[in-house]
Amino acid sequence: MEKLPGMRLTTQRQIILEELAKVTSHPTANEVYDMVRKRLPRIGLGTVYRNLELMADSGIILKLEVGGTQKRFDATVAPHYHVRCISCGKVDDIDIEVQAQINAQAAQASNYEVLGHHIEFTGICSDCLGEEKAETIN
Amino acid sequence: MEKLPGMRLTTQRQIILEELAKVTSHPTANEVYDMVRKRLPRIGLGTVYRNLELMADSGIILKLEVGGTQKRFDATVAPHYHVRCISCGKVDDIDIEVQAQINAQAAQASNYEVLGHHIEFTGICSDCLGEEKAETIN
DNA sequence: TTATGTGCAAAACATTTGCAGGAGT
DNA sequence: ACTCCTGCAAATGTTTTGCACATAA
What we know:
The structure is a homodimer. Chain A is about 40% helix and about 20% strand. With about 140 residues, chain A is α+β, with helices and mostly antiparallel strands. The first copy, chain A, folds into 2 domains: about 1-75, Arc Repressor Mutant, subunit A (Orthogonal Bundle), CATH 1.10.10; about 80-138, Dna Ligase, domain 1. Chain A starts with 10 loop residues before the first helix and ends with a helix. At the A-B interface, strand 3, helix 4 and strand 5 of A face strand 3, helix 4 and strand 5 of B. Strand 5 (about 115-125) of chain A pairs antiparallel with strand 5 (about 115-125) of chain B. Chain B binds a DNA duplex (25 and 25 nucleotides) through helix 1 and helix 3.
């Protein structure tokens, strides 16, 4: 973790970043691997993991530590929150404001030096809501 | 997931719950396994996983989908938030209030049926802060 | 030229699952 | 008795790592 000086600009890195920037979903490492493989068929999954980790460490991308079994990655670095569908696992952005002092409040309520926070909403996405209705009818 | 009717009261279940209720930390499945094994040396790790999952499903305990590689479990079901130390991985409770309408806001900002949310703060715990100072001195 | 990065395969973890025997109800 | 549950071990899924070769600087 955390190494920046002399980070080389390789084809693999460029393409991983390009592909990640193309989508608004929040792909898992394996999904990024699939996307990238269409352009670089011989790339290794290890390379994808290593580079996503590296880019997240250097702040170029965001590693989402959301619920579910896999980590997800996001080319949008600007602070925002997420909703995760408990039915299909999809993750979307949520753009709402929370009270500005929330980190300070948390610091006061603990003996941590609070550096940041993340809010994850859980719910059911519109696609899965549709399917639920369909099931009810059948 | 989700099975309640005719759930038997076994020794394993009682002890898992007792041990979890004893601690204020938020142990991983493996840590619960270690705690329980002191009283039930022949219990299997699979049993611990199965029962933690089952209890979480029936709302007796909470499964925390926090950052890091492992899930954590909490005997306290009352809604509250968490801080995770980015240095040692420890998770503590945070008891603060957020705006009451936050789920409604999220619902409005998306097309999800929003069911809940979780806030995870990240920071450095007092123990690790102490060590940092020690390192600086050395 | 040389330190860093890559592909590949194996290893390391975390979690889940199949099954035969065991225990609540 | 009749399910449901457990221990065990094997399988699965995700992420990390070692190493020989490749490549950006």
